[in-house]
Structure formats: structure tokens, C-alpha cells
Predict the structure of Translocon at the outer membrane of chloroplasts 64-like isoform X2.
Amino acid sequence: MASHSANLWVLLGLGLAGILLVTRKLRKAVREDFGAFIEKFQLLPPPPPPPPKAPHPLTGLTFAVSDVFDIDGHETGFGHPDWVKTHEKASWTSPVVTTLVEGGATCIGKTVVDELAYGISGENKHYGTPENPAASGRLPGGSSSGAAVAVAANLVDFSLGVDTVGGVRIPAAFCGILGFRPSHGAVSHVGIIPISTSLDTIGWFAKDPNILRRVGHVLLQLPYAVQRSPRQIIIADDCFQQLKIPVDRVAQVVIKSTEKLFGRQLLKHENVEGYLKSKVPSLKEFQSKKSNGEFKTSSTSLIANVMQFLQRHEFKQNHAEWISLVKPVLDPAISAQIYETLEILDTVIYRSIRDEMRSAIQYLLKDDGILVIPTIADPPPKIGGKEILSESYQSRACSLLSIASVSGCCQVTIPLGFHNKCPISVSFIARHGGDRFLLDTVHTMYTSLQEQVDIASKSKVSKNVISKEQSAEIAKEKGNEAFKDKQWQKAIGFYTEAIKLSGTIATYYSNRALAYLELGSYLQAEADCNQAITLDKKRGDSCCFLHPTPGVA
């Protein structure tokens, strides 16, 4: 009897050990895919053509798709189990996915999205929040969180997501990878669940700029053409002032890379806030209806409001009936936005702003311009924190994201290393329809950008000195732009800022002297000229008395 009992204990022990072993394996499996996938399967490409024909353009690459794309025989979950319960399995595959598979790539599964693909955090309480491989304990960004994580964790070569108000750009920034939002309408929306038709774009993630471009050429169906380089790279100075990390850590990387590849003459500086205020007249009409004619809100904040309105208004048009019928349990942050009462009569104004915005950005960039902005102002927030829900966080994020979303222009997120152990990035925007040009620009500049990132991260000893000198030059350039626009007081402010940062440069004093002369402030002008002459007699004389425009200095 005792022997029988002992055998039972041995078997029980073996059983428990087996259970523990299986549990450990399951936990390991979850960690290995970082919680990125909802479902795994394989869609295999056709056999490669026999030589001497060229292989398929995406041969050997693997990819995943966000859980908003239809795959024949599989459920399209939309980030919510109630959606799955109330919808049949897809009876066909999204043409975008089919195009990639026919191009030689293998699709290996579907990835997590925010609830109803609506948020920007990447969180999903139903399926779990994918782990950010680049910043443990921090949010991956959404809505296409799983797709970004799958690429960042090297689980696939590229992936597909949907970008409405940042659904590809934000997770790319938070996970430290490339993310491309194409021009609105450039890639077919057929076979995906719509969020906001006026804003939705099918975007893609990759780590390798060559793969990003190859995928883009297949999706955009681009014929062969000679690669073009940019003729102007415009730094959106006011947008960079929103950054919660040192501005120079991002802007100067782009500036140095541009100077090395193309020369300094390509660089321009622009105040996007002022530009949009002057080029989008319907903003004033919109603001007057909201605040009795007082134009207090910035133009970029108003553009962000347009984006948020279109997202909510069109989401309701698409899904209000289902929400009313099914009454799904939603995250409070999402339900508060979805159930917000909207003024339907404002639709005409919003659409006018959107159209004017597109024209304004296209006029600024033309065929060969790149607008450089931060992708997002803040580093990835910690999981469980409330920071991303705050009004100030949302305002900073949306004012940057809305530029491409509302104008319909193409935008790419480019990783620029780390700051305080968090990924940082920059974004390039090209005109609507300039997708090939933007992909080519990324391909051309990527290596140089990463070299400048390495230089910036290694230059710790001289970092503060270099930073001040470069910041002073930026301030001077802003002053020159203001001078050309005959904004004398503004020019003086910028030249003063340059002097505070680097007070030993004669040019800053001589340029400020010219601005003082325009205002009739002769004593201040004379003092600045004297100081310039003291610092550098020859430079001081010529700048103060011979050059009518400080832009030459």
C-alpha cells in the first residue's frame, strides 16, 4: 500500500512538473513574439519565375498585417472580441495583401490593434498590449501596435497598418523603426475596415530603408524612374520647439546630414504656424464661430481639431449603428471621444479647411521639397500611466500628426537612435503624390542620418558648446527670414537670442544693427555696430554699412 501511494506521488510530481514545463514554454512563447500577434498562419507566394526572368520583387521577405485587413477564411477582429462575435469570417483577401504575396512575400499572421483601431497608445485590454522591444515598460504606440512590434522585434521583415491620425507614424516612433504613411488615396482601401475615410491610409513598417522602398514600389505600383534628390529641405522651427527632448538632438542631425549630402544651400527654416494661418483662410471663419471672433487658438491646434472632428464624425457614420446595437464595452478614453456630440453643420467648414490645407502644403513643398518635423513631441509614455490621456499631450501630438493627415500628404517616420533609453525620431513630409520622391529621399539620406546620430551620441564632451553655436546659427537664420519679411522687431528678437547663445560673433550684432536702423533706433544700432567692429573690425564695417539685407551674412 505504501509502495502504491509512493508511486502515486511520483506520478503526481511528474504531472505537476510537466504542467510547470508547459507553462514556462507558453510564457516563453508569449515573450518571444512580444504579444504582437492575434493569429498566425501562412499565405505563400507563387513559385519564382525560371531564369533568366527576374525574381519577384519581394522574394524571401515575410510580413504581418494589422487585424483590420480581410484574409479569406479568417476573422477580421478590429481589436475587439464583440466585433468577432457579430461578424462572419472574411470570404476574400484584401487586394493589398494579395499584391504583396504575389510580389513574392509570405504573410505569417495578423497583429494586435487598439480597440476599433481608434487609439494612439497601442493598448488593448482584450488581447493584451504588445511589448515595446525598443523601450521595455513603455507603450508601443497605436493603433497599429502589433505590426510595429513585429518589425521592431525582427519577427517579420515588414508589416502593414492603417494610419488615420498617426496609427503607423506613432508606433514607428515609439518602437524605433521606419513607418510610411502614403498620400491619401495612393493605396487602395478595399478589404480593410474603415475608420475615417477622409483620413485613412494603408501604411507600412520596416527596419531597412531598402525594404521600405521595395514594398512601396509594389504597393504604389511605381514604374522604373531615375531617383531624384530634394532641392529644398525645410525645417519647421516652431514644430521642433514642442519637443520634450533637446531640439538639437533631432534637428541638427538632419541639418548636418543635409549639409554633407547636398550642401547648406538646400536648407530653409519655416514657421509652420504662421504659414498655415496665412494660407488657410477658413481657419479664421472656424475660429470665429467657436470664440466670437477672437483668434486665440493657434492654427496648428485648429488643424488638429479638424483632424479629430473628421475622425469622430466619419467613424460614427461607419460604425454608430453597430455600436448602438451591440453596445460593446469600450475603453473610457475611446468611448468618451466616440460618444461626443458633434455639430453636423460644421462639416462644410471642416472640409474647406482640409482642402485649403492640402493646397497650402503642396504650394510650400512643390515637387522637390521636404518638410522636416518631429513625429511626436514626447517619448513613449510608461505603461499604466495617464500622461498620454492628458489634454496637453494630445494637443502636442495631434498638432504635429494633423499636418499630413489633413493635407493628405505623404510622411515617413525615421528613427534617430535613443535619448534617455527611449527611441527618438524625425519625420519627413512630401507633397501629395510625392511618395516615390519621399521613399527615394529616405533611401538616400538614411545612412548619413544614422552616422550623424552616432556622432551626436558620442560627442558628449563638446556637446554643450556645439549645441549653443548651432542654436545661435538657427536663431540668426530665423532673424534673417523675419528681416526679409520686414518684421523688424521679430528679427531683433532672434538676433538677440543668437547673441545670448554666442556673443562673440560680429555678424549677429551687425545684423541686429540693420534691424534697429529700420525701426529708427539709431543709438542701439550704433552700439551694435561698435560691438561688431570691436569683435571683428573688417566684418563689422562691411556688415553694418554695405549690405542692405542681413541674409547675406
